[in-house]
Every structure is written in C-alpha cells, then in structure tokens.
Amino acid sequence: MALIVQKYGGTSVGNIERIQNVANKVAKFVDDGHQVVVAVSAMSGETNRLTAMAHEIQARPIKREMDVLLTTGEQVTIALLSMALQEKGYPAISYTGWQVPIKTDAVHSKARIEEIDSEKIFGQLNQGKVVVVAGFQGVTPDGDITTLGRGGSDTTAVALAAALNADECQIYTDVDGVYTTDPRVVPQAKRLDHITFEEMLEMASLGAKVLQIRSVEFASKYNVPLRVLSSLQDGGGTLITSEENFKENEMEKPLISGIAFSRDEAKLMILGVPDKPGVAYQILGPISDANIEIDMIIQNQGIDGTTDFTFTIARGDLPVALDLLKSTANKLGAREVLSDDTIVKISMVGVGMKSHSGIASQMFKTLADNDINIQMIGTTEIKISVVIDEQYLELAVQSLHEAFELDK
Ligand code: ADP
Ligand code: ASP
Ligand code: MG
After folding, report:
1. Is residue 214 pLDDT above 90, yes or no?
2. Is the pLDDT assigned to residue 403 strictly greater than 70?
3. Tell me, what CATH number does 274's domain have?
4. Does residue 246 register a pLDDT over 80?
5. For labelling alongside 396, which of 106, 108, 211, 365 has CA 20 to 30 A away?
6. Domain limit, last residue, from 249, 272, 295
7. Does residue 229 carry a pLDDT above 60?
8. Are 30 and 110 members of one domain?
9. From 182, 200, 257, mutation site for ligand 1 pocket: most ligand atoms within 8 A of C-beta
10. pLDDT per residue as tens digits for the range 366-382
11. 3-state secondary structure the chain
12. Rounded distance between C-alpha atoms, residue 282 and residue 320, angstroms
C-alpha cells in the first residue's frame, strides 16, 4: 500500500464528464489498495472568468478580495469530485485550504505555504476515505484566505505530498509529460522520460507553465518524486527526481534538455540616473518592497556621470512598478522612464551546458539568421535567456528547436 498525492488541473476537471473520468482514475488507485489524496484546480477558464469580472469593477482589484473571489473556483471542483467518488461507491471528503488548514504567509495573490496540518487528512485516510483538497489556496494566521499564484495547485499537491510523506506525487494535466518545449508551439517537441529537479526548476522558472516553479522547489527540497502525466491518456509520463536517481545509462545527458519561454514579461528603463553608489538599491528597492520580482537587470556603463538601468518584471506587475519607478525617477532627477510590455523571454536549458561552450553563439546565430533582434541576454551555468519582440516568439522557438536538433 502506498500513499499517493494526485493533482488534476483545470482541463482535467473542465466539465462533469471529465470530473467523472477523474473519479474513475482515483478509484483505480483505491482498488489497488492505495491511500489517495487529490488536489484539484478550478475548471479550466474559471480563474480567468472570475479575474475578468473583478477587472470590470476595479482596474487594480483589492488583492485580499481577489483571493476570496478566485478560491471559489476550486471550492466548486472539490465538492463535485467528492460527489462523483461517493456516487461510485468510494467514500470521499472535500476540504478547502482553510479547512485543512494549509497555513500561508499573508502575501495575497502569491502567498507561500508555511505549514500543513496533516491531522485531519490522516484521520480521514485512516477511515478509508479519499481526501479531496482545494488547490491554489491557503489561510493566513489571521484567518484570511490566500492564493498561491497562478498554477498554484501544483504547489498544493507537492506540499501535501511533502507534509504527508507520500510515496509519489502525480501531476495529471492535458499533456502526457514534460516536453523539450511547449508542444503547442512546436508540434515536433519530444517528451522527456526523466528530467532532474535542477533542469525542471529552470524550465518552470523560465516560463514552462506545465509546473508552477514553487512546486518544483518544494519537490526538490523535500525530495518528493514527481511525475507529470496525462489525465486523458495512459502512459508513464515524465519523472522528475534528483540527479542521483538517474540510471547509469541515462547519464549521457543531452547538452540542451529544453527550451522554455515566457510571454509574461515587461521591460522598464530608467535613463540618465546619477551614477553613484546606492542608485541600484534606490531604484530596485521600492519595487522589491512591493513584492514585485525583478528578473533580468542591465546597468549601462556610466557616461557623463549618469547611467541607464533596464530590468524586466512580470507583465501583470507593470502598472504598479511603473508608478514606483516614476516616483523614484523624480527623487533621483533621472531623465526619463520608459516601459515596454511587448517583449518575451526565450531560454535554453540543460545541465550539459556546464561543460560545453559555443551554445550561446549557436543560439545567437540562429536568431540572427532569422532576423530576430536580441534586446537583452542573461546566462547561468545551465541556461541562456534572451529577450526579444513578442511577434517573433514562435519563429524563434521553432528555429532553435530545430537548430539544436531537439526533435531527434
Ligand atoms: P493544468 O491546467 O493541468 O495545470 P497547465 O495549462 O497549467 O495545465 O500546464 C499544461 C500546459 O503546459 C500544456 O498544455 C502545455 O501547453 C504547457 N507547456 C509549456 N511548456 C511545456 C513543456 N515543456 N512540456 C509540456 N507542456 C508544456
Ligand atoms: N486555478 C488556478 C489557476 O488557474 C490554480 C491552478 O490551476 O493551478 O491558476
Ligand atoms: Mg497548471
């Protein structure tokens, strides 16, 4: 007997028939003698629908209220799945995040899980029930409802698996595993049988939304074996584990394991800033203090005692960041503030890069051959990222995928 945590995403619970399909899948594991905890997302499109309604009322909806609103999506699917299981004769019980409780910090819209109370869940499992938990949500020490950021149900599932010391965490979605790149953009993309936490962490943080980044962080930290599978077709999916778990014959790793991209990017520029100690902090400090994550940063060589800064953030954070930057520009006497939200970031990821040079130049050549201008470049040991105009996203990803023979 094993304890398995399963997560079903929005498409997998997108209508009543799909919810019944999930109930059938869960039932098979129960029949095999396993204990099952299920985390579910809202029905596909629901979180966006709720968000759009809020935006009809407020340009920048109050985050606390937004969390109250968005968590309703998952409350619907836990109840329906629990009913579907019970209807099939499998005892089940649903819990919202605050009922478990899944305790988080108080950063509305991107809260972090701090602790999960496992007592209630174990109590129900021991009575032979399937426990269905709402993904994407938690509760603060003050009892306020929080959400974990888009795609957060993945993190709920992995955090549950860690807290319950589960044998495996299975993420069921609408593709049958992790691919060399998003198969919706490159149909020739190849499914990977096995990928390391390290690579998956990069892929996720660079935009491969098949898993939320925090879910991979959790899995890596607590060493939870993670598997991405399709809820609609059978197959082994993709296993994500630490590097030690790779078999000997798998060690001949490809240079590049995948290409990730993100459309959720915006660029801010502050020009003509006095070039003296402390300006980077004065510019970026207020933005971090507003819980806005800064990604790539470029500071130009100072000329005439002034310098320019360019940095990128998530597109949704642009209005707030722009206001903050304009007020900093006033204080510092900077010349100008510019912004651009028509950019995307494309990244090539692979642990094999550590020991190979020439990947970057081949990447730049491929983009040049396609007349695609590079606006920013960032590298680490296992990735190279470029920022380009959003209109070239598909062309860039497809031609890089081909140039690096990822379809072979
Ligand atoms: P869910 O609703 O199940 O959480 P998501 O839409 O969040 O599903 O994630 C699955 C989607 O991730 C796929 O439909 C696919 O378009 C996208 N995706 C992006 N990059 C990859 C990749 N490298 N491998 C597989 N899927 C990817
Ligand atoms: N429903 C949430 C979203 O759409 C959480 C999730 O699906 O993981 O982002
Ligand atoms: Mg998702």
Report:
1. yes
2. yes
3. 3.30.2130.10
4. no
5. 211
6. 249
7. yes
8. yes
9. 182
10. 999 999 999 999 998 88
11. CCEEEEEECCHHHCCHHHHHHHHHHHHHHHHCCCEEEEEECCCCCHHHHHHHHHHHHCCCCCHHHHHHHHHHHHHHHHHHHHHHHHHCCCCEEEECCCCCCEEECCCCCCCCEEEECCHHHHHHHHCCCEEEEECCEEECCCCCEEECCCCCHHHHHHHHHHHHCCCEEEEEECCCCCECCCCCCCCCCCECCEEEHHHHHHHHHCCCCCCCHHHHHHHHHCCCCEEEEECCCCCCCEEEECHHHCCHHHCCCCCCCEEEEEEEEEEEEEEEEECCCCHHHHHHHHHHHCCCCCCCEEECCCECCEEEEEEEECHHHHHHHHHHHHHHHHHHCCCEEEEEEEEEEEEEECHHHHHCCCHHHHHHHHHHHCCCCCCEEEEECCEEEEEEEHHHHHHHHHHHHHHCCCCC
12. 16
Residues 33 and 168 in one domain: yes
| Cβ pair 94, 81 in contact under 8 A | yes
- Write down the pLDDT at residue 300: 86
Instruction: For residue 19, give the nearest of 68, 70, 88 by alpha carbon.
Output: 88
The number of the ligand 1 atom at minimal distance from the alpha carbon of 181 is 23
CA of 352 to the centre of ligand 2 (A): 32
- Rounded distance from Cα 336 to ligand 1 centre (Å): 39
Best CA proximity match to 265, nearest among 347, 184, 210? 347
Is the same domain home to 289 and 212? no
> In total, how many domains does the chain have?
2
As a whole number of angstroms, the distance between CA 313 and CA 266 comes to 5
Q: What is the pLDDT of residues 23-82, one digit of tens each?
A: 999 999 999 999 999 999 999 999 999 999 999 999 989 999 999 999 999 999 999 999
User: What span, in angstroms and rounded, lies between the C-alpha atoms of 283 and 334?
Assistant: 11
Nearby residues for ligand 3 (ion, Cβ within 5 Å):
9, 151
Residue 254 lies in a domain: no
Q: For residue 53, what are the domain limits?
A: 3-249
Burial environment of residue 44 by CB neighbours within 10 A (0 to 12, 13 to 18, 19 or more): middle
Tell me the CATH number at 199. 3.40.1160.10
| pLDDT above 90 for 203 | yes
Please give all residues whose beta carbon lies within 6 A of any atom in ligand 2, as ranges.
9-10, 41-42, 47, 73, 135-136, 150-154
